[in-house]
Amino acid sequence: MYQAISRGLLIALALLLIASCSSEEPTSTGRLDKGDKAPEWTGIDLVSGQQKSFPGLLNDKPAVLVFWATWCPYCKAFMPYAGQIQAEYAEHEVQIITFNAKERGEGDPKAYVDSLQFPLAAIADADSIAENYDVKFIPGLMVVNGEGVITYRRGWTDLPAGKTVAEFWAGEVRAALNELLDSATHSP
According to CATH, what is the number of the domain 31-186? Predict the structure, then answer.
């Protein structure tokens, strides 16, 4: 009986491995991407304790969306750059809107947000928002225009957590914001 169970598990594992290594792209992932309207949401802000709603929170201005957790080394590496981006684009009223997601109960999200020392909205318990935005891995990074349309979504990288990847993502976010703001100033 033990051999039958072992054989069954081995077959199941082999099938799972074959399926996960498929080179075919799925026909429809449901993934939100550039050009898609970001879903509406309502959540409680860790900073103010007030309810915030999207897209109303935008006030017709662009925003950087960051999905993060206190345990995530990639998130910790990127957040100081989010603060720099917020300061650099303050004249354009670009907001940083963050979502505490996939937390695992290991940290204190409020204390972490308070330590960041830059203005941001930090939505608490945002797992359902992350799911609606199809965020599988964190940090999830997106840029949206003032109407809530996604103009940038972070892609996959194999860079390790730390300064290099944080600078890489910050550069991509800045490029997306520059493109968005340039197109807004050159539109009729």
Answer: 3.40.30.10
Distance CA 45, CA 32 (A): 23
Listed by start position, the domains of the chain span 31-186
The Cβ of residue 33 has, within 10 Å, a number of other Cβ atoms equal to 12
Tell me the pLDDT tens digit for each residue of 86-137: 999 999 999 999 999 999 887 899 999 999 988 889 999 999 999 999 998 8
Q: How many CB atoms lie within 10 A of CB 135?
A: 24
Residue from 62, 56, 57 nearest 88 by CA: 62
